[in-house]
Amino acid sequence: MKAAVNKDECISCGLCPSLCPEVFEFEDDGKAGVVVDVVPKESEDCAKEAEASCPTSAIEVSE
Questions:
Q1: Domain CATH number, residue 11
Q2: What is the pLDDT of residue 29?
Q3: Model-level pTM?
């Protein structure tokens, strides 16, 4: 499973890193980013929760 953040849509609300810090963090540009190449199995649920909770739908989590 992979995760991606659309930087053009990200509003830096902080929800994704607070829900799933193993996968998301703020980067130097102030926007959220993905910190892993592959989402660890134990973090899949929180990554999907972050995707569903993103107010701008900037996160995509896929197989």
A1: 3.30.70.20
A2: 96
A3: 0.93
Whole-number pLDDT of residue 42: 98
| pLDDT at position 40 | 97
Domains contained in the chain, number: 1
Q: Token pair of 13, please?
A: 């609300």
Domain that includes residue 18, residue range = 2-62
Could you tell me the CA-to-CA distances from 25 to 18, 33 in Å, in that order?
A: 9, 6
CA distance 25 to 41: 18
Structure tokens at 34: 């993905």
* Distance of alpha carbon 3 from the chain centroid: 6
